[in-house]
Specification:
Blueprint: H1 3-17, H2 26-39, H3 45-52, H4 56-66, H5 77-98, E1 103-110, H6 116-128, E2 133-140, H7 143-151, E3 155-156, H8 165-171, E4 172-175, E5 178-181, H9 183-186, E6 189-193, E7 205-210, H10 219-232, E8 233-241, E9 255-257, E10 262-265
Length: 266
């Protein structure tokens, strides 16, 4: 895809879906869009755009494709062990030191896709501090993914492969190759649609989890998101990012490194 065509496609996507592709890595997005057009059986973008304007279902498919969703419970299990054994106990103790022993945590899963990440957090915090009132927020740009998250599934059996047998029994209802969260855990998470680049953030979070999301963005967009995350964290709050991601100079944003994939607000 040449630059002229890509510019036209970006403008159309922004006009039709209000998704600004300027913030995404260009070559990566060009490849994705090219393969998508071929998969849909079209050779010309103008013809394709005319088609999807007459088909809400296909318009939604394009939106879901562009928002890039990969999901799995306890993905990168070693890092989640770190959250369970070190980070959450630390944050709970911090709340104890600066408030009531019954005060819960404020946790945000940014770019939560179909909900595996915030529900993973809900499971962990329910087991560590079940008698506190916690606020767990899951946000994403993909409306279809959020609908599935709110419904608690269905999740393919492969998506819960890292869940222990004990937790499967406790938290899931499994029908053949599909898994659904039990209703008792659904109410623990609040979901809402959000654009990480353009929308304002809630604040006073103890923990922000944003894994394998900003890797698709250009440096300028990443820079802005990390700054906004900093503003959304309370003092000593923690940002937990993907295993292949790194903030090269965290002190420039006001963070200190806190183990692998984690940064604490200084």
């Amino acid at each position: 895809m040449d630059d002229v065509v890509y510019t036209r496609v970006k403008n159309q996507v922004n006009k039709i879906l209000s998704i600004d592709l300027e913030s995404y890595k260009e070559e990566q997005m060009k490849r994705r869009l090219g393969s998508w057009l071929t998969r849909c059986g079209y050779e010309d973008w103008d013809v394709y755009f005319k088609f999807i304007l007459t088909s809400p279902e296909d318009l939604l498919k394009l939106r879901n494709f562009l928002t890039i969703n990969v999901t799995e419970f306890f993905r990168d299990k070693e890092r989640w062990n770190q959250v369970e054994e070190k980070i959450l106990p630390l944050l709970l103790q911090e709340r104890n030191n600066h408030g009531s022993s019954l005060q819960g945590l404020r946790i945000w899963s940014a770019g939560c896709s179909t909900g595996a990440e915030p529900y993973t957090l809900a499971v962990l915090i329910n087991e560590l501090a079940p008698n506190r009132h916690h606020y767990i927020l899951g946000t994403d740009l993909d409306k279809g993914a959020l609908d599935r998250a709110r419904a608690g599934g269905p999740y393919h059996i492969d998506e819960i492969k890292n869940v222990t047998p004990e937790r499967r029994i406790k938290y899931f209802e499994i029908e053949k190759e599909k898994a659904y969260f039990r209703s008792s855990i659904l109410k623990a998470v609040t979901f809402k649609e959000q654009n990480l680049i353009t929308d304002t953030y809630e604040n006073d979070f103890d923990l922000i989890v944003c894994r394998n999301v900003v890797i698709y963005f250009k440096y300028e967009a990443k820079n802005e998101i990390y700054k906004k995350f900093y503003g959304a964290l309370r003092k000593s709050g923690i940002l937990f990012i993907g295993g292949t991601e790194i903030i090269p100079r965290p002190n420039e944003y006001g963070y200190k490194s806190y183990g692998v994939s984690c940064y604490i607000k200084d």
